[in-house]
Amino acid sequence: MSLTKTERTIIVSMWAKISTQADTIGTETLERLFLSYPQTKTYFPHFDLHPGSAQLRAHGSKVVAAVGDAAKSIDNIGAALSKLSELHAYILRVDPVNFKLLSHCLLVTLAARFPADFTAEAHAAWDKFLSVVSSVLTEKYR
Amino acid sequence: MVHFTAEEKVAITSLWSKMNVEEAGGEALGRLLVVYPWTQRFFDNFGNLSSPSAILGNPKVKAHGKKVLTSFGDAIKNMDNLKTTFAKLSELHCDKLHVDPENFRLLGNVMVIILATHFGKEFTPEVQAAWQKLVSAVAIALGHKYH
Which ipTM value was assigned to this complex? Predict the structure, then answer.
């Protein structure tokens, strides 16, 4: 599965808008994830997961920054996220099913914050983009 | 049996009461067909599905979307009794329509995203969680009679 030129344009132009709110988007995404899918908290026993916690904010920033890195290198996401891919495969070992859950929560956050931009076409492009990112992050699992 | 707390029920019914079910139905089904184009396999006789604007403007998509979402309204009136409420529809989707239940999960998530675009900040993480619980329970109820 690879992104068309149109899809890449949509992602890159929306990213420019999104990046100004990157940190809060990351935090909100994680809050949504942990509330809707409590089983995902099992990967964070060492975290304070209360809304507003410093750890949640820091981790949310990290996650969205990585999505941003993928958007900025949208022609070669594999290369951009290679280190992260290894981290997930050998250290974190997050079950692949969770990437869909996180992606969904990020889409919900974007839809809530940018309703006018989040057209059906943009929705499709983002869903596909995050699917590609998820594939890259799980491609070294076995 | 899924149990919804009083808060969850309020989160669900209050948003539902503000929704234009007809419009939202067309949007939900339309987005499903746009974002997950393989779902078009069930709608060969719907005419022009060749582009996002064709899909979203397609009168058959709008009509069918309205049907689907109206039925979802029944779920909301029977949140404590979903399996019974959807027993007949479950049989229909299995025996006559041959729909993979995975599609119910996809549509449920598309609906959640549409709620987010409509309600913005009001669609808080807590409200989303209540809706995820509902769409998941409806998907399970619709798959319950499969054999």
Answer: 0.90
